[in-house]
């Protein structure tokens, strides 16, 4: 009977064609099959190949998502959710083909509960837009990955960014999610209560699941009051090691820095050129302090004293909003500023995170590899969390160059794992890092993840080929 | 064939006897079967009946736990983990019988990584002992549920307590767990990195799982530096509403209070009698501020100004450690201080948590119920999170009294759910709140939880009859 069923079942490509026909009859004006749009909706940000879905559907509400998922579930057709396309590890590729669900039109802010410091939004809202809408109410959502990502994508990759050292990651800032399950049903992971002990933590299970367990269609986020005072600073150091050691001392002494970002001298030079800054081309920390006027002043003073102990400083402060914006824009443009360093090459962002006591050592060994292997790879990092990126410039058309890049990345990840760290602090697994899952987690933990995936998506239709293979 | 298998399979009680024999031959000196010890290891804290396991094994290492679980897995015998016995919802009961695994001898502190602000401990370490060991190193673990609970139990119930408003709950303070799976294998949920996006968040799945998915045998916890300055305060209010509104304003204005606890006038009276305090018998907030000297002073001033707006104050400060200890001991003894209010009755702690904008309303309606139903139920609360408890004194031997208590609890939970809250902010589901899971989560979310339980514990041997029925 099993053999007969297998024989009578149409091949995947035929089932995809059937799904597209059904979707066309149901959601015609929201369906696009032209190649340019499909390619735009697959990986466009790194060395990974572009693997487009067979169709893109622009969902406008939870019911649209349910209808799409139900059609795909009936036909065992892959469903790939898409937010803003800023992911770095091929999360939005469709290696088996299937239907891409573009959520960018689901961009309504459904509620801002000022009294509760939370809001309810659709997943296509981007972080910049959210903060524009919140500003008048004296509130903000702190997480800031640089790119103007969608909040749905940020939740799905367990994103963090420059403010995480103080405000936490998406895991800490999502209160609840509405999710369309792989069967096309809707569930809500939690209430709006600030905390709960009522059963398994479904919120944290879907945060970081990269769309492999369901599609997020609504997000309840914690918000924060805009601080009374904000002060940013740039602090130069003689060496990367001195900068890292100052970061470690800052965290250990409990100064509640809101941002503490490392740029190595290669990155500072690139940023000077790209963002028209005139910083000393030496390892540098970009910082931000949030609090009351008095408290911000006190934090900055204490940081300055620590930096001086390691030969750093003096800090240059940016208090005016436009000065701060210029500074952080330069930091966020690190990726773009690296591109002119090797015209024609692709930029590949690495993403290890280690216990902070190992940070200086990990960064120094990585820099040694970069120099010895003759690579172009400026370093930036959310160093308060022990997380840093190298923007590796790779000529993917040159097999030797590509092989060298892969060797460098493998060595970097092995180094981080050996130091008790992770292969990805915030970018996620996607396709690019599946090969490191066993080394990081071990067989039993990986088997538990597979069991969860099989239990919640038994047909393996939700973003297949990402995180775990089942 | 299914029928034959069922017929040939010995009944549960026979299998339990067989498991005890196997355990005796393997771990003889760690096995206890006398009734007094077994009853001590079942629920002793609330109105729920005491349902002892058939044997208690005092595990001394992860290998012991693996050996116990393997024997029980082979024979389909329930395994119930036990930490310090302070749980409030019957988590440690053995409704089907089985083997209780006492983890209190697994109480070693395996590593304190001062530079990384973390530590690795066994699950039987209690929070007071941990803080005693950390003090000399200038570090502390902030979570404080009142009782001297084991950290394994605190992780398993997603505990929080008085400091959570500033430092978060166990979900926020566990970096990684070692877990013995229902098959007796060992997995580690994460590295020591401060953040990671590497796959499904197994740490957060086991935190709050109440031992239903595996047994925690090692915990990596975030630590914090002991603040430079700590100041505690007691602030009286004319009404519960004024106190709640002051709490809401405090949270909204971003004052980083470390503790903000409500005691209603009934509780203040009970605490005066029990802890020999001389507080005005009116609704009162107990507070604590952490920071630098200057910052603590500033926080207290800002709070005082807000309290005055609602008719509260003046605050009385306790700066000396012994004064602070006396104050917080009185707060922690709220449960015990309620017992003399109705001698012979049992104390049942309720545990709803609502969005903070609804806190005053929820507390006021609950107080009205208490008065109208003629109940004895002082109110205490971690009100900064929207979480409050009523210590309901119930004569469980009197059916009318018990029925009235149940009606009150049901009304309280329905009220909290209707306000967007949860039936349990920090005590957990256990046996006592399973009946509210569907109302809080809805059918689809509950089905997802069941699917996870079935996937990770297919034989349903891990603490069965808690959280979800499968």
TrEMBL record, chains A, B:
<keyword id="KW-0274">FAD</keyword>
<dbReference type="GO" id="GO:0004458">
    <property type="term" value="F:D-lactate dehydrogenase (cytochrome) activity"/>
</dbReference>
<dbReference type="Pfam" id="PF02913">
    <property type="entry name" value="FAD-oxidase_C"/>
</dbReference>
<dbReference type="InterPro" id="IPR006094">
    <property type="entry name" value="Oxid_FAD_bind_N"/>
</dbReference>
<comment type="similarity">
    <text>Belongs to the FAD-binding oxidoreductase/transferase type 4 family.</text>
</comment>
<dbReference type="InterPro" id="IPR016171">
    <property type="entry name" value="Vanillyl_alc_oxidase_C-sub2"/>
</dbReference>
<feature type="domain" description="FAD-binding PCMH-type">
    <location>
        <begin position="49"/>
        <end position="226"/>
    </location>
</feature>
<keyword id="KW-0285">Flavoprotein</keyword>
<dbReference type="Pfam" id="PF01565">
    <property type="entry name" value="FAD_binding_4"/>
</dbReference>
<keyword id="KW-0560">Oxidoreductase</keyword>
<dbReference type="GO" id="GO:1903457">
    <property type="term" value="P:lactate catabolic process"/>
</dbReference>
<keyword id="KW-0809">Transit peptide</keyword>
<protein>
    <recommendedName>
        <fullName>D-lactate dehydrogenase (cytochrome)</fullName>
        <ecNumber>1.1.2.4</ecNumber>
    </recommendedName>
</protein>
<dbReference type="InterPro" id="IPR016166">
    <property type="entry name" value="FAD-bd_PCMH"/>
</dbReference>
<dbReference type="InterPro" id="IPR004113">
    <property type="entry name" value="FAD-bd_oxidored_4_C"/>
</dbReference>
<dbReference type="InterPro" id="IPR016164">
    <property type="entry name" value="FAD-linked_Oxase-like_C"/>
</dbReference>
<dbReference type="InterPro" id="IPR016169">
    <property type="entry name" value="FAD-bd_PCMH_sub2"/>
</dbReference>
<dbReference type="GO" id="GO:0071949">
    <property type="term" value="F:FAD binding"/>
</dbReference>
<dbReference type="InterPro" id="IPR036318">
    <property type="entry name" value="FAD-bd_PCMH-like_sf"/>
</dbReference>
<dbReference type="GO" id="GO:0008720">
    <property type="term" value="F:D-lactate dehydrogenase (NAD+) activity"/>
</dbReference>
């Amino acid at each position: 009977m099993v053999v007969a069923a297998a024989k009578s079942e149409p091949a995947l490509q035929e089932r995809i064609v059937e799904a597209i026909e059904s979707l066309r009859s149901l959601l015609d004006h929201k369906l696009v099959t032209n190649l340019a749009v499909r390619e735009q909706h697959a990986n466009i940000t790194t060395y990974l190949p572009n693997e487009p879905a067979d169709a893109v559907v622009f969902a406008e509400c939870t019911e649209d998502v349910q209808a799409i998922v139900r059609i795909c579930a009936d036909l065992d057709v892959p469903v790939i959710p898409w937010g803003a396309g800023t992911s770095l590890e091929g999360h939005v590729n469709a290696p088996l083909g299937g239907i891409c669900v573009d959520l960018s039109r689901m961009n309504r802010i459904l509620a801002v509960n000022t009294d509760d410091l939370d809001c309810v939004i659709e997943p296509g809202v981007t972080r910049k837009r959210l903060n524009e809408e919140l500003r008048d109410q004296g509130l903000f959502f702190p997480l800031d990955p640089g790119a103007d990502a969608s909040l749905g994508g940020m939740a799905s990759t367990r994103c963090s960014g420059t403010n995480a050292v103080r405000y936490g990651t998406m895991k800490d800032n999502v209160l609840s999610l509405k999710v369309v399950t792989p069967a096309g049903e809707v569930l809500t992971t939690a209430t709006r209560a600030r905390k709960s002990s009522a059963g398994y933590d479904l919120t944290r299970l879907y945060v970081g699941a990269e769309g492999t367990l369901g599609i997020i269609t609504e997000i309840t986020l914690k918000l924060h009051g805009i601080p009374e005072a904000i002060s940013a600073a740039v602090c130069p150091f003689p060496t990367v090691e001195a900068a890292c050691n100052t970061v470690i001392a800052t965290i250990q002494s409990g100064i509640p820095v809101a941002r503490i970002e490392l740029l190595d001298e290669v990155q500072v030079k690139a940023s000077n050129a790209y963002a028209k800054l005139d910083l000393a081309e030496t390892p540098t920390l970009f910082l931000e302090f949030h609090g009351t006027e008095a408290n911000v002043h006190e934090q900055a003073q204490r940081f300055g004293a620590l930096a001086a102990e390691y030969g750093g400083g003096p800090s240059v402060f940016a208090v005016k909003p436009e000065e701060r914006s210029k500074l952080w824009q330069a930091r966020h443009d690190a990726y773009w500023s690296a591109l002119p360093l090797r015209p024609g090459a692709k930029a590949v962002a690495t993403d290890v995170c280690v216990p902070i006591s190992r940070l200086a050592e990990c960064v120094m060994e990585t820099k040694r590899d970069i120099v010895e292997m003759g690579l172009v790879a400026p370093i930036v990092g959310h160093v308060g969390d022990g997380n840093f990126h190298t923007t590796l410039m790779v000529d993917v058309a040159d097999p030797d160059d590509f092989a060298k890049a892969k060797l460098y990345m493998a060595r970097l990840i092995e180094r981080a794992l050996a130091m008790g760290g992770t292969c990805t602090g915030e970018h996620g697994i996607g396709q690019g890092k599946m090969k490191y899952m066993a080394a990081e987690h071990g067989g039993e933990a990986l088997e538990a993840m597979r069991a969860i995936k099989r239990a919640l998506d038994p047909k393996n239709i939700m973003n297949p080929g990402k995180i775990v293979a089942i």
